[in-house]
Amino acid sequence: MADVAFEVNFDGLVGPSHNYGGLSYGNIAAMRSRFSVSHPRAALIEGLHKMRVLVSLGLKQAVLPPQARPDFRLLRRLGYSGNEAAVLEKVAHDDPVLLHACWSASSMWAANAATVSPSADTADGRIHVTPANLVTQFHRAIEPPFTAKVLRKILPAAVHHEPLPGTLQLGDEGAANHTRLATSYHDPGIELFVYGRSAFDPDKPRPTIFPGRQTFEASAAVARLHQLDPRRIVFAQQNPRAIDEGVFHNDVISVGDRNVFLYHTEAFCDTKSVVRELREKFADLGTGELVLVPVTAEQVSVTDAVESYLFNSQLVALPDGNSCLVAPRECETHAGIRAVLDDILEGKNPIRQVLFVDVRQSMKNGGGPACLRLRVVLTERLGAATRNRVDLPRSACSPRAGQVDSTHMHTPHFGEERTAMDPATEADFDDKSSRPVNDSNSRSAESELATAHQGVFLTDELYARLLAWGERHYRESLWLDDLVDPLLVEECRSALDSLTEILGLGSMYDFQLLGEDKPQRHQDTKKSVGRPRHQGDRD
Hints:
By secondary structure, the protein is of the alpha/beta class. The chain is built from 19 helices and 15 strands. Strand 10, helix 10 (271-284) and strand 11 form a beta-alpha-beta unit. Helix 2 (40-56) packs antiparallel against helix 17 and helix 17 runs antiparallel to helix 18. The N and C termini lie far apart (61 Å).
């Protein structure tokens, strides 16, 4: 029986400690929002609504659980002692930035979780996954061990590699700097690896203001680990000037899906050469032509691209063969961006629909629709049952540009983990039960989609349960002084304990496995969380 292949978007669920710490140097939106009030419940709902839009289009959608925060093990390794309440008070007094870092919900941006190569591209015919080490940002460098654990659990048929060694010379930011182009998901494709600097070649250009996070050396290592054919790989360096203007990842300045590549002409050091190589190597596949959709600086400046996150839209393939761009609402309200989108819709390319979604809580931290998802191509046996769809009302989309009406997409107003200083060892990632032995045979006779953990795929029921879960466990607002509230610690643990049951993941978090202050489960009834605000508190 033949296989078909689908792209599955695995979106990171926004964690209950979603806050604005301004931790991401080079991410202008995040830096601008430093220490402002966040709205975790609204952020979660925005993310779920975006996922619901994709399911309504007939696409496959799944979720990734957030990481447990605050990271007390990290704080204790840094010399803080005493009970948890005392530790939080000491950190808040000594270093508010560190306090935000240990509470960071940044794993919501699943585009940085890993680089994934599908079985159609690899020499052994298996999916390959390499979790990103994220060493350039302290608050993210503590994520890889749990990320690797979750991905092994959810994708047991894949070959799971360790994150690259945690050094700045091998800085790896995951799929945010990786794009796969192919005529269809089942066909072999071209994998584009984009890097910000070369660690071992001082003569190559580099940014002067903000860091080039991804290194060429890291990208090359991931390509080798994934057993990719060098004839189907393109390495491209980011334009250092673009990085200094806020393009901290390539997915802020280009996006591709199937045979469509939408890019800004200022994206790369030598954009013409990059595009030429992509076109030539794509043609060598013999499956069709690459459709290039360039946007010039005269149409959209790099500054406007960063402000609107036009290129951080999700480019997705519709069941009818056309493509859809799922763009942040900010693109709709910017006259210049909207004009470019109209030109794209009228151009000679498969993009025939644009949907606008509200992800304002994520955007305020520098993450658009594409930042929130990790794309994974999975095969399925023909004749397998399809999943339930979550359908939007027909009136939710305009016939012209497929705009999502806000009335239908309502947003409310409102175990010791290692850091980059202590790289994980192979034993931490060597889970024999979920790490298959490589072989040189053709793809597994078993459907990759069927072997994936089914509890994380978004259905009507799961969507409703996650909405109710968020209403029950997430605070409406988080203020700076809330991060020293012991009740918030309990609320976060209770939320994650309940989530693992909803998703059928079993005990995944340290507090579950070690029995540390494990919360009691609550009934599925709505309850208010968070301490009350007092008169005179900030608006």
